[in-house]
Structures are given as structure tokens and as C-alpha cells.
Specification:
Layout (H helix, E strand, L loop, with lengths): L5 E3 L5 E11 L3 E7 L4 E7 L2 H16 L7 E6 L6 E6 L5 E2 H7 L7 H14 L2 E3 L7 E4 L2 E4 L5 E3 L8 H12 L10 H12 L5 H25 L7 E5 L3 E6 L5 H8 L1 H5 L5 E5 L3 E8 L2 E8 L4 H8 L4 H14 L7 E9 L2 E10 L4 E2 H6 L7 H17 L2 E2 L8 E4 L2 E4 L6 E2 L3 H16 L6 H8 L2
Length: 455
Amino acid sequence: SKFPLNFTLAEGGALMVEQPLRIVPNKRWVVLAQWPQQQVVAKIYRHSRHAQRELMGYQALAAANISAPKLLSHGWVAGEKLYALLFAYVYPAKNYSEILAASENNFPPAFESLIKVVAQMHQAGLQQTDLHLKNFLQSGAITYALDHASIKSNKRGQALGELESLKNLGLLLAQLPFSYGESTEKFYAIYAQARGTIFTTAGLNKLKYWIDYWWRCRLRNYQTKVLRSSTQFICRQDWWNYTVCDRAYDTKEMQVFLGDPEAIFNSASTKFLKKGNSCTVGLITIEGKSYVVKRYNIKGFWHGLKRAVSVSRAAKSWCNAHLLQLAGLATPKPVAMIEHRYGPLRHTAYYISEYVEGVKLTDYFNTKLVMDEAPIIAADIKQYLHELTQVRLSHGDLKATNILLVDRKVVLIDLDAMCLHRFSWLARKATKRDWQRFLRNWEGQPMVLKLFQTE
């Protein structure tokens, strides 16, 4: 549906939209607006039952004395079947996803306040069923709860039990990068103190179980989310093409390239990094920014027939790059993917990522070793693979050329053979094969081989 720029509330007062914050087509709009002489955040719903859930969630938080942006007004929009809730605009403020992105350690001090708010909600018999970092806002010393429609109230009016509480807290902590696992004990200690309960090893183990459970759910769900239109991605599909692009990169020039990738891929300005039978890799420039384009070629009729009914390697690379980012593991930023199609049948596919200036691991170890640095690099690679296994991912083709060092940090590339495993033992088994393949790179370099074989 078309997004209106101005609203008039049935009870009076014009609402002038300044900026859309989040649009869920045919469901709700969240906008920054003027009403009448102050800035507000307006949530405008197509269905009044959703608006009523938002109102009930807000009232439940208020009754529990939990901070939320003040509700200024609510009611029907004049002449429309729309219901609006107007909240005070909290500024300056940052949501906890922004706080996390700016953090340089595994325990941002602001997170103590967040854990205490969640504990306060649980003590009041409340839980947020869509618990993620963007649903909490920090301004000064106050943490505000947002998205009140997802607030679920305990009908008995009692505090949540341990199982329900830790399951919900695990959902929140599963939003953090996997490296934050070392802070789980500290998070649990803060939570237990805020609830007035005793810190127990059994409780900590239950929390770790639920964090792992929600992590696996997030990874599985994210594989499908990155292949459809959402706040972050835009998907375009017709009989001949299927394209997904990160909205932050979806400029007019990028759209031209995505519509006809061969035009720039075959231009004289394109630098080829690899010309192989199964794939061709080119370095291109769009609006002054460099990107790597990997084209997955069709080698012949039978290969084309197989690829037509299989998930494309471009789609695998696209999904796997986002899984790595979700886990906090470095890989070049995924930008877009393209599949040429004939209806449901796939043909040539392309994967586009940001270009990163790095050194291939083979080149690094083929130069004179910096003895005080090489062991650190080797340890970082082992740690990267350990974290990869912890989230049940394996690379599938761990050649040394598929690891870059960017400012001496490990960055993984060539992700089309990567696999997300259902069971941890399968991930460990696959990682063992990856490691054996990796060690074969250094069979003629005993000094390097010793670095990786040393525990």
C-alpha cells in the first residue's frame, strides 16, 4: 500500500510525517513526525487488534514501573481504517544494537542496565517474545523498552519461573556475537542479583543451553530471511532473473549493474582476479567503490541441467557470508546476488561482495617469517576455526588461498562450499577434514607446518 505523508487524528491534531523509521507493508508504519508542535514517534496500524496489543503491552510496562517512551495519544485516523499511537521521541538515544556495534570489548557497560530491565520484566511476570537489541533504547542512564505489542503478560500475575525466565534471557543473549559467550557468566550473575535469586551452576548451564538453542534457530531462520525482501534486503524477481541486494547498496548505478552484470563484467575496466572453468572472478568499480564479482559458469549441458534444479553457488555464498557476519566472524561484506533463470530453473549466477585489501595467507607465509608475529597469526586462525565449529559451520574448501589477512586479522573467503550442520558432532567431523586440507598447504614448509601443529 502507498505510504501517506500526512495524517489527521479523529480526535483532532494533524500529524506531519518527517521520516519513515520502519515500514511493514499492509501492517504498520513507524514514523518520526510533528504533532502538532513536538516531535513524536507514531505507530500507525492497519488492524486495530495489533494496535490494542501495543497499548496493552505499554500499560503492562507502566504498571510494572518499567521505562518506555511516554504514550502521548492514541486513536483512529480521520477518514481511514488506521489506528495510531503517538509516543514521545526520545533523543538523543541509541538502541542496543548500535551500542554493541560501537563496543570494543565483550562486555559493554550499558548492557548491565539492559539485563536489569529484562530481570525487572520477568519479576513482574512480563516477557518480550520478540526479544532483540533494537527493542531497547538507552538515553542517559535510562533504558527504554520498545515494541510493546510483543510483550506477553503472565496471566497469573506472578513472577516468571526459572525455566521460562532463562529461556527468554537466552533469546536476548543469543543476539550477541558468538565471541560474547565468555561473558555469559557475568550476564547471569547480574540477572540473578537483579531477580534476588542465588547464582547456581545449574542455572548457568540452563542459560547456556538456551543461548545455544536460540543461536541455532537464528542461523536457520536467517538463511531464508536473507533471500527475501525485508528492512535490510530488497528482492526483485521475474521470469528471467532473481536478485537480492542489501538496501544500503541499492543505488541506481548498482541496479543497472544487477540488471545486466555482463555489460560491466566484460568491460575493459574490469580487472580479472581469476579466470576458471567453473567460475570467473572480476574486480569492478561502481560509483567509485570496488567490488568483487564471482560469476559461477555453466560448463556444459549436463552441468547446466544439474545447476538448474540446485541451489546456486551464488545463493550459498550469499547466505553463508551473512551467517558468518551474524556469528561475528570476518568475511568481505556481502552486497548482492543474481541468478539468471528460466522460470524456476537456474542458470548463470553471480555473487557480489565488497573488495577488501588483504594478503593471501600463502603469500604471507611465503615471505620471510616475522617470528614474533607468525605464531599470533596461526593462533588467530585456529581460534577462527574453533568459533566456526562452535556455531556448527564448516568451510568445505579450506585452502590457504581462501584465507586473507586484512590488517593482520583473519578474513574467510570463497564460501560456496560452506555448510551449516544440524549436529555439533557433524560440524566437528567436517572441521577435522577442513583442518587436514589446510595443513596440506604447508607440506613443503616445515616451519609453517609446525606453527599450526603446535597446540
